[in-house]
Amino acid sequence: MSLFVIGSFLAFALLGMPLAFALGVSALVGLWFSGFDILVIAPRIMNSVNSFPLMSIPLFMVAGELMLKGGIMDRIVDFANAFIGRIRGGLAQVAIISGAGLASVSGAAVADASALSSTLVPSLKKQYGLGFSTGIVAAAANLGPVIPPSGAMIVYAFMAGSSVSVGGMFMAGVVPGLILFFALMILCWFIAWYRDYPLTGNPISLGNILRQLRRSLIVFMMPVVVIGGIVIGAFTPTEGAAVGVCYALFLGFFVTRKLRLSDLPEVLLTAAKTSALVGAMIAFASTVTFLFTIDLLPMHIASMMQGLTESPFIFLCLISLMLLVVGMFLESNAAYIMLVPLFHPIALQYGIDPLHFGFVFVLNLVIGMLTPPVGVVLFVVTGITGVKMGELVRESWPFIAAMYAVLILCILVPEVVTWLPTRLGY
Prior knowledge:
The structure is a single chain. The protein is mostly helical. It is built from 21 helices and two strands. Helix 2 (19-34) runs parallel beside helix 14 (264-294).
């Protein structure tokens, strides 16, 4: 039955059918060929999406869209400019800081790529040319799912089950996210120095830093309130996302005063489209996962992997190599939904910390969003800026290499991921 499901899914996907529907049709094919009652699909679909934790996904999306519509980018960029000063590659580093700041309030690479491309590329390309400018923006946008809050981590935690909490995944991303942030900053400086790009920015002024910090502090309090509340147990991730929406509405209407009532329908429609796509994938993939389970596919894979190696480190390396290929060809949400229920239980059998495996899994697929041929961040940046795909890919490789270096560090030194969650009791 598993062979029928996998074969039909690949066939429908290659024919161009949307992945969510390809999953659903392949589940029907598997049931039909195996003689099962097709009516088992309906309750599986209903139960998979009838979930309170899943509500956090559209709510975080709404919060992020509200922050973008509310003029949050201006304050983040001004804050970054104040701290950088007149150094080599300063404007590029402003883009990285802006991406990190945006990541702390949105948690989605696609939304961040759209915001950064439209606001920063016009200024960046005057200094660095279009290719390097778009490479910087794509790399900065990829911080979105790594630095909490992260939509990818929410999906992973939901698919992994009770052994992984959303708060624990968020905390697992803090230290690696900071390491990746500083790695990208150093790389921007090195490339600017190597290519002899001109100095940019104004000299550092303590008065300007304090002024921009005062203007931006209320913005950066949002992740402190939302993530802090989740970590200390004041509210669940779903309730935290709802608090984030209220906070974003307050900022947009009463602080920046750039959010209008007329913006709300577009914000809700954008969040609804993305949420519907994720929800459809989860609904149909739950049926596929159910078929895999009753066909004992996870047990067969576990036996095969344990026959290949008994080393948790080798297992992580094999999974990373597989996800490297998967990330190049499969949309990341589909990969989480299809693969997490298969490989997360196997990782537990190897004795791997669930948060360590979860973050390595997420970071692999986040990097896949920046690698051709199906790198969704690449398509967003090319669509907005008009840069040629080949030029963008060529300029993005140094940043992709930096991300893989952080991934390797996380595999070799699990404490990079697990230290903070362990201290906080996860």
